[in-house]
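User: Fold this; tokens only.

Assistant: Input:
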Amino acid sequence: MLFYRKWSIGKISKFIPLLILFMVIVNIIAVSFIGLIYITINENENQAGDYFRSFNKYALLVSNSGGEVSEEILTCYNELSVRISDMSLRQSEAAIMTPPKYTDNSSQEQYLEELRKNAAVVRANLSSAVRLSYVRTFAMLIVSIIMNIFLAMLMLIGRSSLQKYIGDMSSGLEYLKKVLKYENQPDFKRKESNIIEIEQLNEAIFNLSNDVGYNRKLIEKGIHGNLNLLLEDLFNSFRKRMPCDRIALAFIDSGGTLTAETAVTSYTHLHLEPGFRESLDSTSLNQLTMSLEARIINDLPSYAKEREVSKSTRLILSEGIKSSITAPMVFNGKCIGFLFVSSKEKDAYNTEMLNYSMRVLNLLKQKIYIEFLLQEVIAETSNSFVGLMEEKDNETSAHILRMSRYSYIIARSYHEHISPLSPRFMREILLFSPLHDIGKVGTPDAILLKKGPLDSGEMDIMKDHVDTGRRVIEKMNDRLFNIVSSPLMKTAVEIIAGHHEKYNGAGYPLGQKEGDIPLAGRIVALADVFDALTSKRPYKEAYSIEKALGIIETDMAGSFDPYVVRAFLHGMPEIKDTYDEFKEI
């Protein structure tokens, strides 16, 4: 186990005591064997000494017997037999002698020769047994020495590894403390280690260091003034840590309505769009507002089959979402909204990812809410400008509502069929398109409210409304830019400055053409003209949608971006629905 590329201190700490115990037991057994063998050698030597003394006495009596067996010889033989029975089995078998039965000198000599052979065999066997015992003793001694050397090496390795483990853990924890106290700028360099615990600590510190560094950057960026910008940063952060195809925010208003605020996705076609509203009571999110706990759904299709789900869930499913994390945004024990992290993969999320989502939300929730409030203030300010314009102009609020919806539909259709656009851009088209004629607040009433056609001088004055509106919003944008980190009204300026420009360069105030005209201006220009054609004016009746389309495609050919016209035609079913819903009677 010690020789694996990765190993665990936890497992080694369990393994080493058992190994030490095993080696101690082996040492005890070896020493016991050595002691036993030593005792056996001494016992054999003592028995052999007694045996050979009796044997020599017996051989001497036989040699001096004169060919006759005496009582003394028989007595000595019996004593020798007793000695033989006390010896070990191997020696006693070799020492077995026949009783003395000789009757003359010749048979006596033969018996003596037999005794000499017997003594030689006993000596040889005894010598062999002693050598074998010493070999066993040496072997046990070698085993004991090897075990002790191995034990010493194991203790040295364990001590060295433990010192490295403690050192690495201490340095890692010290770095971690400094990062959490913001004493260090996070720049942790992850290093390979052969200790699993150190590798895990390195991985945890590396991730946390990245998180702290990234969160610090988010905090230090200041106020974006737009939730889309903040959410784009969060989206990139989440994609580095977990599967993420969609990240979104929704807020709860005082009436218990949940509004989808903004979303950033890895795909282009959204079904659950910003601005979608739904009663909180009709969703399962109502439970989370009471528990204030985040949740994971790792198989959204199966979840939807098992129960009646809300319309927003069905829209998410139609986008291909299969897993989601829902994290409540809580202030003073009250849920004001949710962060949604979603994936097109099943079983995409675990508890660690949920906890990460909650940590990020808790760190940034005040910033998110400030961004949301600032965005709402800007929206209300824009609505106030529009209301001011309605008081002065003869254009109705229905016109403002229709052309802003038309503009949004065209932008979304452009996003789906021509080229991807950011959710922020499409939202700003909806929010700021009503400001397109804000400069008319500076146009004299005599010209603005004139029933008949304008002469050339009056038309020049009327055209000044573009520059007037642009200057007002640019000044507002410049002042906001001193507070926030991005130009919040940039799209509004582009709409105001570009909605009377023509694709062929025949428009005003700058005579821009084609791609020099900002896309926002090109989109709102078409929406504004279409609504003007299909609406009643003091100087004309409302044209039908078909006649308006004919004028746009033939009489005004070249005035509009052909790609914007194509997007407009793709979105015509929704445009007709908007026209029917908000047309003036």
